[in-house]
Amino acid sequence: RMRLRSGAFAAGCLLAETLGVALFLRGFFPLPIRARREPRGDLPAEPAPPGAGMVSNWTEMPPPLFKKVVLVLIDALRYDFVFGSKGKQFMPYTTQVVEKGTSYSFIAEAKPPTVTMPRIKALMTGSIPGFIDVVVNLNSPALLDDNLIWQAKTAGKRIIFYGDDTWVKLFPKHFMEYDGTTSFFVSDFTEVDDNVTRHLDSVLKRDDWDLLILHYLGLDHIGHMTGPNSPLVGRKLREMDNILRKIHVSLLLKEEPSVPNLLVVCGDHGMSETGSHGGSSEGEVHTPLLFISSAFEKRTGPPTQPELVQQTDLASTLAVGLGLSISRNSVGSLILPIVGSKTMREQLRFVHLNGFQLSRLLQENTPVYEKDPGYEHFKIAERSHSNWIKLYLEGNNSEILLNLGKKVLKQYLEALKTLSSSLSKQVAQYDMYSMTVGIVIVMEVLLLLLLSVPKALSSRAEFEVSLSPPLFSLLFYLMCLMLCAVHIIVCTSAESLCYFCSVSWLTAVGVMMLLSALMCGILSSVAKILEISRLPQKIPVVSSSSWSEIDVLILTGTIGHVLSLGASSFIEEEHQTWYFLINTLCLVLCQELCRNNFLLKECDPQHSTTVKTNSDSTRKGFEYNNIDIPEEGNAKFGKAASSAELIKRSDKWISLASPWIILIFCRLLRSLNQTGVQWAHRPDFGHWLTSSEHKSELSFLAAVSLLMIFFLVQRRCSLVSKIAMALGLLGVYSYRAAIGNVLFPWQHESKDISK
């Protein structure tokens, strides 16, 4: 047997746990789809027509469809803010253009995580960023992947940007002119947008730009602070509507008949019913996408439901509109109505370039790309396209050519949709084998820790590891062989790439040995516990490491809470788990206190014997030290004993009442704010207080709370600290009064106070 100190044992478990978590995370965060980093070659030519002597050498990119493009990105613009009742009420001009103007409207679906920086990457590269991009959202490094901004700058396009400085960090030295605003002062609803709008009048009069990007943050800040149903949302939407009208009118006035301008309106993500974002609810992933240009046909007839497209489709569509190459890593497909005014040959050229780029990306990231349905559909469409080109070059202008062109377009669109879907699935494809190995390591370490807790918390603080050669050495080698065999089978039969299969054999065997050693340690601990339980106990011994009911409850609750985080529904409603655990813990504490204060003294002879022994030993101690206690001292000693007994009784009743007081306050806290997702819309005490009708009650409660804070804390403070704290608390109340949350006693509700 080998003995380990608790510190050494904990350090070993921590190292193994770190390895398990690292393996799991490596499998959980899949690598993004990437094209090879090599110089961009010439564009592919049109599919060669069948037959001898017929050649189509169109290898150039078609000319730009639009002269100037303005991209207006409204942060957290939810789809129903434009297409729903709020749009009709607060965005009348935009609604009129959508329903009756020369525009195309879509609902763009964003992939989680729905936070700003990954969404900007998706809009400009056409790729799907992963959850790991959330980590770098606060410190956005420069974007090195092929993207629309880089393509435009390389082609000589002049780009101007105003808005969220995340763009400036992602695309440094790309903008001819820029003014970035920080996105983390979420209480700023006004200045953050005024800093963008103040440039509009001057920049719209100029002709020295080709691409103008505006990123407005105010709506997102309002959502975070007050939610999507706040009156402030309507005001902000009306402000955005006026800005869009100004831009649209200016583009129409400066437009040339030959090459029209384009206004694009979109959101990076939406917002949930509580005003937050980052998840995958419908309100968070669905955003409006509007294309407004005189190049489109005027809409007629009743309004129709906007078509659903992917957010990544914007990068491909804007690239074609600006006459640029599609980004190599883009998984988006062209939105065909935007190029619907061009000739059939140009439309086929656009979709062929998009299909060629997607099929090439699939080839570089999938070993068996030939079997992919999207690749097969693309090759079929290419053959049909070559037949169409043959008819076109022969000068055939009949109805057959038009019908065949429509058929080829349909085949291309089906291929683009399937290719895009295949590539998108690869981004969300988890490395299950690496995740499983990581989970097994973590669970084995957790089980070993649970079995060793009584020993580790004992007075000796040692953990005994049994290394019995007859049993566990043989088991160890057998488990190693079995795990190595499983590893070989998985790695030779897996179709997709697996990280754990790509590591060296020495590393893989080391991990298998660790798994086997942990399992042997668990079996050894279980065998020892069973062996001790079978031994007859002649002398009852109270173990210092025995577990009480509260210990079991805390351990069970902790494990249950951790397991509940494996489901998104439990994460969204995590507060319900805490409510249950706190209530249960309070009731068990109440039972424990009742037993200790009432039942234990009457029923437990060991307790009374212990008390008696303690008193006898105290008396003997006085006699042993020859200490004489005089009568006065004896009286004082009796008074002290009686006061101590009184304090003990009051403490007993206070301790008994504490769990019930905590339960009452917990119930009040549950009524204060409805949180989560399922019941966030239900009325609560917080909504009652913050409503305009009850501003006086909220003001009174806030004032009393701040005064209580002052009186509870000031007793231990110096005079300077008291003055500073009083001024600070007064500042808190004054700030809330300035933004309209509470009232001063002398202030009438109808009058606004000066900020």
From TrEMBL:
Keywords, comma-separated and alphabetical: Endoplasmic reticulum, GPI-anchor biosynthesis, Membrane, Transferase, Transmembrane, Transmembrane helix
Domain of life of the organism encoding this protein: Eukaryota
GO biological process: GPI anchor biosynthetic process
MF term (GO), any: CP2 mannose-ethanolamine phosphotransferase activity
Predominant location: endoplasmic reticulum
Pfam families listed in its UniProt record: Phosphodiest (PF01663)
Localization per record: Endoplasmic reticulum membrane
Membrane protein topology class: Multi-pass membrane protein
Pathway assigned in UniProt: Glycolipid biosynthesis; glycosylphosphatidylinositol-anchor biosynthesis
GO CC annotation: endoplasmic reticulum membrane
InterPro entries (UniProt xref): Alkaline_phosphatase_core_sf, Phosphodiest/P_Trfase, PIG-G_N, PIGG/GPI7
Residues annotated as transmembrane: 432-451, 471-490, 502-530, 698-714, 726-746
CDD domains, sorted: GPI_EPT_2 (cd16024)
Homology family: Belongs to the PIGG/PIGN/PIGO family. PIGG subfamily.
Descriptive protein name: PIGG transferase
